[in-house]
Sequence to fold (888 residues):
Amino acid sequence: MIRFVLRRILGIFPILLVVFTFSFVLMRVAPGGPFDAEKPVPPEVKRNLELRYRMREPWCEARFLPALQGVRSPDEERALRRASPWASRAERVCTGLFQYGWMLGNYVRGDFGPSYKYKDRSVNEFIRAGMPVTLQLGLLAVTFALGIGLVAGLVAAVYQNRWPDHLAMIAALLGISVPNFVLGPVLILVFSLGLLWFPPARWESLSHVFLPGLTLGSVYAAYVARLTRGGMLEVVRQDFIRTARAKGLPERLVILRHALRGGLLPVVSYLGPAMAALFTGSIVVERIFNVPGMGRYFVDAAINRDITLAMAVVMVNAVFLLVANLVVDVVLGILDPRVRYE
Amino acid sequence: MNRASARALVVALALESLVGACERDRPTFGPETRRHRDNVLYVGGGSEPESIDPGKSYDGPGIDVIRELFEGLLRYDPKTLEPLPGAAESWEVSEDGRRYVFTLREGLVWSDGTPLTAHDFEWSWKRVLAPETAAQYAALFWDIEGGKAYNLGSGSRDDVGVRALDDRTLEVRLERPVPWFLSLLPFAPFCPVPRHAVERHGMAWTRPENIVSNGPFRLVRWIPNYEIVLERNPTYWDRDDVRLDGAVLVVSEDTHSMLRLFRAGELDWLGSNVRPPPEYVPHLRGKADYREDRYLGTYFYWINLREDRNPGSPLKDRRVRRALLLATDREAIVRHVARGGQRPADGVVPDIFFEMGYPRPSPVPFDPEEARRLLAEAGYGPGGKRFPTIEILYNTHEGHRQIAEAIQQMWKRHLGIEVRIENQEWKVFMSNRLEGHYQLARAGWIGDFLDPYSFLSQFLSDSDANEARWKNAEFDRLLQLALSEPDTRRRYALYAQAEAILMEELPVLPIYYYSQNTLIGSWVRGFHPNAQDIHPLRSLWLEAAP
Fold:
């Protein structure tokens, strides 16, 4: 088992490198750069910026497009690039490789690099500030998801095809189909602007975290409920349950001690990726409730072409996902005697 | 007090209570009375500042924070935005308008107690120009002698025309007279930065634990994408005039969540970086805490005139451009689509300048008949060539889409022209616009300073912001001439001549002059709407605060 875990951990690194490379290439080939703005800065100033952030590499220019170094206006540069497209492409690739090497070097040192948009800050600071909040919110959402989902699923399974089952499954269907960008504002409208029970946004006290946690957790709660119900129904039909009942065990013990362990297996497999998703945050919930987490950067950083920040959140998410899957595999092995570590 | 003035006072008091009564009678969007109990202003801050380093900042939210934390030689008058003495108590300008000498106040200190001297200003300004700083506003300093050369890497730091003659005297020499130079000085890039802190902490010097500043407030807390907390700076020279204990800037890009916070009484003011969306406006109008004012900006469409793009496009014909403008019912766009108190634009210089003596451009009527005649004259329409489908490019945004659709319909109905509208995500859109891959593209221009030059200079033949690549020697000449004209009226007359050429040639289709709308609690006092929507917090106060 220890060898299995070690091998899996070692296997994470090549996967991360692939993710890193792939997201870097995607960010670089996306049209538009981090310094394109409605009020264009003079080309010389933009050049200074690009040199500073490794979007331009003097060595590559000298090697492939020497004429570029004397060029001042963007129109001239464009004309020059159009005149020699292959040299221009070679220069771009060369610059990209330099930038890739620079960022990879930073990552090896545990540094995500400077943010391209937020000029006073390093990406590490954003992750460091956002991650604890996102983890708190994620933990809360998981609690809601498991608390509501497990109970609802169990009740539904025990009272199969009777009214508690239908009620729980209708609620689950609603939970899955109502997106959180609808649920969030509706909850705010009712509970904060209407009943004045909770504040409408921000992240200060316990009363602030309730609505965002519920909003984020509801979809997962619904899935957990359905999976628990499905898993339980499959297990309670098996022979060992019949045996347990035949021994005269009270129904409560049959369900909680014998059926639950097997019935939870689908939930556990589902929880791995679900927790990875919850712990990297949700742009929608964070925006609606003004939660200072890091989920927002998934979209914002990509839109701003903030290469370093966008890649950092992708990498953090990749690590979470890989680790969560590993943990799930280990837990499944403990719960399910049929699983063997090879 | 004599009897007449006593009577005037009574009348004034009566009037005020009457006005006050009316105010109270009108419904509000937020709560009627303040929810918070402290003497701290809660403001919407807009998106996360890109930087609060005066030398590096380039975005609205960052500049707003810098204005509270730092103070330049001059500061803004909250009503008129005219420059008032800030760190400098007096200044002299030479006869030819090219040499300025500023005298700093005595005993100025940074928030850590270090003395603030003219040397700090010299160092800070040169820092903005240093190529390695890569400051985006560096070009504002290019009019300083030797500034452009140093910034571009060909000159030296010592040749830049900024010099501290002694601890309290700063001399600035300009390459050419710049009539609005003084009005630039309250602006963020001209604020001093603390050399000792910058050199000690590097990029991290703007963190709350490291920052040293000289403005009315100082930075207590800065949580990215959440909030920025300011408190009154006890070392600020005019601290007794600062009435707020502090301010909390709630950072969020989500307008709806900000509106909800205001509604719940968590915000005193929506802030100048958060605008209620147009669909809310009909509901907000008439509420006592809603206001709508004019803003220093123009919304327009670029028409691509680049020689190497869109060969044979009918848009390269001036008559066609005129026809398109005449067939655009801008009044209807403003009233039914934009809906936020905008005014139809007859030019690119915003109407705010009209009451400052800028000559009003001749109005552009909505005249489909004349438009059809012009189109026929250009050879299109019945019996002529078929007008090819043209495309309007805009960045993905509900408001821009609605306007593009309205224009699409108008041109179809009045001119029979097929228009395709295409939206692109912001950076893709900007890249295509800058590269010239468009026929018509949406644009908005917000003035950096209170002079029409801020709007007209983008149309200079050699301007990088001239995205149409429109070239007109006479236009360039008139603007050049205006620069050396110190008399405002005469300068405005020259600008107006230049703008008339622009409106004759139409490399742009002006659509509307911007407005600024906001929500602000009646308990916030000292708030004056102004052209650039700049509201120094030091002049705001809270009614009935402890």
User: Anything to note?
Assistant: Residues 1-6, 8-22 of chain B have pLDDT under 50 and may be disordered. The domain at 295-516 of chain B is CATH 3.10.105.10 (Dipeptide-binding Protein; domain 3).
